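Changelog-adjacent note: as of this version, every example in the card shows the full chain rather than a window. The one below runs 245 residues end to end.
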Amino acid sequence: MTPPHDPTPHRVHWPDLGGWTPDQPCVVRGDEAHHAARVRRLRAGDPVELFDGAGHTLDARVVSIRGGKQHPVLELEAAGEVAHHPEPRPALEVFAPVPRSDRLSTMLDQLSQVGASGWTPLVSDRSQGGRTDLKRDKADRVVLEASKQCRRAWMLRIGEPAAFADAVRAPGTVLFDASGEERSAGGLLGEDTPTRLLVGPEGGWSPQELDLAREAGVPVVRLATHVLRLETAAVASVVWAACTR
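Full-length structure tokens:
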């Protein structure tokens, strides 16, 4: 059965794009080739968009698919030049604990969609005993698939775990808590200054952490009337920062 026509070119992650030149072959292998050939069923002549997740994209078309069903290889022909897209500004970095069970995938997918620049696992007093474990391969795959779906040129970055006492000291930090004021980002955040958005665990910040934040002059902001799940608050913080300047 022939899949319905999709006018939007399929996106293919190709990490080598940043250093590619027109005199080099344009060949895709591995999982990306398998998905394009066996799931999306691309054929010779179909358009694709290559991206490396670091701001580079390239329009291309399929020339041939070889290598058999198990290990297909896509040979592509460039349909233009490599384009470089500036990284979005301001950078919105979310610092939040690792959610329970599989809700991390939901959070990473939605953070990618709303335009967060990165997520860093935050170690706080009540973050499940300082849990920072995550299946990095799975997390990277979620970020990749989300970047394809929402057509990001820059993929969401996942940072190394950070302690609250270190995270709260950076300029441009905002902490979200039910005890805070309802404020817009206007006047708090600069137009081009990187912003660090601190979202607490489901048990809330400890009194010591709130005191430390206020002593450091960090604004404490209330996001919503109701209590939000960790992953919902993380996404809402990005929307707040992006839309209320």
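Structural remarks: Residues 1-5 have pLDDT under 50 and may be disordered.
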